[in-house]
Amino acid sequence: MAALHDVQIPIAADETELKQCQEADKDNFEYSRRAQWLRAAVLGANDGLVSVSSLMMGVGAVQKDVKAMILIGFAGLIAGACSMAIGEFVSVYSQLDIEIAQMKRATRMRDAEQNKGESEKEQLPNPMQAAIASALAFSLGAMVPLIAASFIRDHKTRLGAVVAAVSLALLVFGGVGAKLGRTPVVRSCARVLVGGWTAMAITFWLTKLIGSNGL
């Protein structure tokens, strides 16, 4: 009887370890898929914030008219969203082509079963979904400086409101991205905040310099 117990114990342990490994593999796969969408969303939102706010700050350096700032901001939103969507579509489509080619080579080598091939196909990246997600994320970020500037008539106050609103949004997006991506929150927030400030400052002062020289 003791011998039988000795034989059964390692088998149970092996089955438990196997289940744990399978669950860990599933968690890692889900995290990898989430990281792909997170990358597209965070990059799109940050690009929308920084690009459109920098454009508006540049125009605000030489023009006090609120309509000019809103118009250039809206144009930047449309152009940036289209650019993000097309760029993400092309990038993910290239990745899709590579993964499909790899699947075909692996299938020919191991003569995989049809059901398994269909299961793997469902896990492939979707270029259209990635393009739409990037465009929406960019538009969401770009709306922040547009809304901040829309209801303020004083020129200096309007510029300050844009900087404040964009700074807060950068901190929020940086924090959310860090939490979901399991990276240090403070470092991530500081990185995106300093980057956004730098882009807005460079655009503002260079545009002001060019405008003051009459070019």
TrEMBL record:
GO terms, biological process: intracellular manganese ion homeostasis
Keyword field contains Iron: yes
Subcellular location: Vacuole membrane
Name by which UniProt lists this protein: Vacuolar iron transporter
A GO molecular-function descriptor: iron ion transmembrane transporter activity
Species of origin: Escallonia herrerae
Reactions performed catalytically: Fe(2+)(in) = Fe(2+)(out)
Pfam family, one: VIT1
Membrane spanning stretches: 68-86, 130-152, 159-178, 190-211
Family of the protein in this entry: Belongs to the CCC1 family.
Main localization, broad class: membrane
Record InterPro entries: Ccc1_fam (IPR008217)
Function, as annotated: Vacuolar Fe(2+) uptake transporter.
GO CC annotation, single: vacuolar membrane
Keywords: Ion transport, Iron, Iron transport, Membrane, Transmembrane, Transmembrane helix, Transport, Vacuole
Keyword RNA-binding set for record: no
